[in-house]
Design brief:
WH-like_DNA-bd_sf; single chain; LysR family transcriptional regulator; elongated
């Protein structure tokens, strides 16, 4: 053990962390560009050097031992400090550079960030952009993300949040649906209608409308729930029911009359679009560049999806 150089002594740290994050030697190898056998060999060498077993191996998956759990915490912190050191050096560079991994909601990313990606990359040729679109909440640190776009209420966390734009939602339906079933004039009347629901809605089991006497909770009842907002929009346009939708999706439909706003005397709470990123002493130049870019392109009031549809 004493004959191992300092470089080799700590070279296994990123491999060990990658194995835990990816769940297998093979997946870690693919992520790091190594063979499964090479990763397995380095982990065995690490265990031999430490004199403890870090992982319990079964035919299906890997499990951390007590010692492995303890070592994993230190290894993650060590890699985090190393990345902070790289970020501090990167701040001295005049141009942002390196891999920028961002997590964005599926539909917002497709409609409003994907079209801007070529412009951002053209302005910053030293950056490689990895944009992951997923409506589920991801762990930025565990997932290795530099930044995420999140919409609506933000839970308490150690992340830094930067407000980008407002996010307004409306209760709406297609003219064809209203012609068949009538227009609800009060929140209570929604109980008589087919309310379509978004499966990942974070507001709980109720739609909350703001009435003259305060918030009004309405439990939506209907025959369709889906985990993709564009699929929900398709059902709305087909006249399947009523839904609450953000204007960053249905703004053009409202402007064109394909969808009609309902219960305008009972608006929905105003939310916001945020960029969130891990707290660091030195924010990487690539992250600062992306924040400035989306603030310039998507910021301001009203947001661009409402300006374009007005």
């Amino acid at each position: 053990m004493d004959n191992i150089g300092e470089g080799e002594r700590f070279a296994a740290l990123p491999l060990f962390v990658a194995v835990i994050e990816c769940g297998s030697f093979a997946a870690a190898g693919r992520k790091l560009g190594l063979s499964k056998s090479a990763v397995s060999k380095r982990i065995l060498q690490l265990e031999a050097r430490l004199g403890v077993r870090l992982l319990q191996r079964t035919t299906r998956r890997l499990h951390l031992t007590e010692a492995g759990t303890l070592y994993h915490g230190y290894a993650r912190r060590a890699l985090s400090l190393a990345r902070e050191g790289e970020d501090a050096i990167a701040r001295l560079q005049s141009q942002p550079r390196g891999l920028l991994r961002i997590s964005v909601p599926m539909v917002f990313g497709r409609l409003h960030l994907s079209p801007l990606a070529p412009e951002f990359l053209a302005a910053h040729p030293g950056v490689q952009l990895d944009m992951q679109m997923d409506d589920r909440m991801v762990d930025l640190v565990e997932g290795g993300f530099d930044l995420a776009i999140r919409i609506g209420h933000l839970p308490e966390s150690s992340l830094i949040a930067r407000r980008i734009a407002s996010c307004r939602s409306v209760i709406c339906a297609a003219p064809a649906y209203l012609a068949r079933h009538g227009r609800p004039e009060t929140p209570a009347k929604l109980a008589e209608h087919n309310c379509l629901r978004y499966a990942y809605y974070r507001g709980g089991a109720e739609w909350t409308l703001l009435g003259p006497d305060g918030p009004v909770g309405v439990p939506p009842r209907g025959n369709y729930q889906v985990n993709n907002s564009e699929a929900l929009r398709d059902a709305l346009l087909a006249g399947a029911g009523i839904a609450q939708m953000p204007t960053f999706i249905v703004g053009p439909d409202l402007a064109a009359g394909r969808l009609l706003p309902l219960l305008e005397r009972y608006p929905l709470p105003l939310h916001a679009v945020y960029a969130v990123f891990p707290e660091r002493k030195h924010v990487p130049a690539k992250v600062r560049a992306f924040l400035e870019f989306i603030d310039r392109r998507l910021g301001g009031e009203p947001p661009p999806w409402e300006r374009e549809s007005s």
